[in-house]
Amino acid sequence: MEYFVYCRDRSGTWELRLELTEDHWSFMDRYAEEMIARGPTLTPDGERTTGSMHIVDLPDSAAAREFAFEEPNYKAGVYGEVLIHRWRNVLGRTMWEFEGERAGYQRFLILAHGEPSKADDSLDGAHREYLDGDYADRLIAYGPLLSEDGHEWTGTAILVELPDRSTAEAMMANDPHTKNGSYKDIEIHPWQFGGRSSS
């Protein structure tokens, strides 16, 4: 089962996060084979982190909670909020298989929170056709956010590389789910690939 985990940093914990970098990486090393995507969200200037995002394949919800709440940053108080959702890997690949990197482009985590009362399964095909048609070579990973049992649609998570934030905003403004009013709010975070440096 694939899980999307996003942890928002608590204000004033930047230095603590830096101190825990190796502990965080060592913990994540245990999940290297299960990892689909990972990385920090950033302030607009890219200088500091605002959170940590992981998409990981785990056996069940208990394993997902262990992944989120046994992580060193969480246990030390770096995070103020933790979001855990079931997720479906529409592209069927990891972020390391993305081959479309372009110089000067920026990477974003787009977290679109769904309004379940306005969910419309008939839009799923149009949503995928829209993203795959206009943004196919820009998508790093994307898929629906789901309830714990995997049956209820609760939104969308997209990792994408685009020229700038305004392009990301335009992409979401024209999403069929947005036009239907299916999203109650949309977050667009600067984001970068995470993990140990290859050097």
Write the layout of secondary structure elements.
Blueprint: E1 2-9, H1 14-19, H2 21-29, E2 35-42, E3 49-57, H3 61-69, H4 72-76, E4 79-87, E5 106-114, H5 124-134, E6 139-146, E7 153-162, H6 165-173, H7 176-179, E8 183-190
Would you write up a description of this structure?
By secondary structure, the protein is α+β, with helices and mostly antiparallel strands. The chain has 2 domains: 2-87, Dimeric alpha+beta barrel (Alpha-Beta Plaits, 2-Layer Sandwich), CATH 3.30.70; 102-190, Alpha-Beta Plaits (2-Layer Sandwich). It is 27% helix and 35% strand. It is built from 7 helices and 8 strands, in the order E-H-H-E-E-H-H-E-E-H-E-E-H-H-E. It has an 8-stranded antiparallel sheet. A hairpin with a 6-residue loop joins strand 2 (35-42) and strand 3. It is globular, with a radius of gyration of 16 Å. The protein starts with a strand and ends in a 9-residue tail after the last strand. The mean pLDDT is 94. It comes from Actinomadura spongiicola. This is YCII-related domain-containing protein. InterPro entries: Dimeric_a/b-barrel, Sec-metab_biosynth-assoc, YCII. Residues 1-88, 107-192 form the YCII-related domain. Belongs to the YciI family.
Question: Could you provide a short overview of the structure?
Answer:
Belongs to the YciI family. With 199 residues, the protein is an alpha+beta fold.
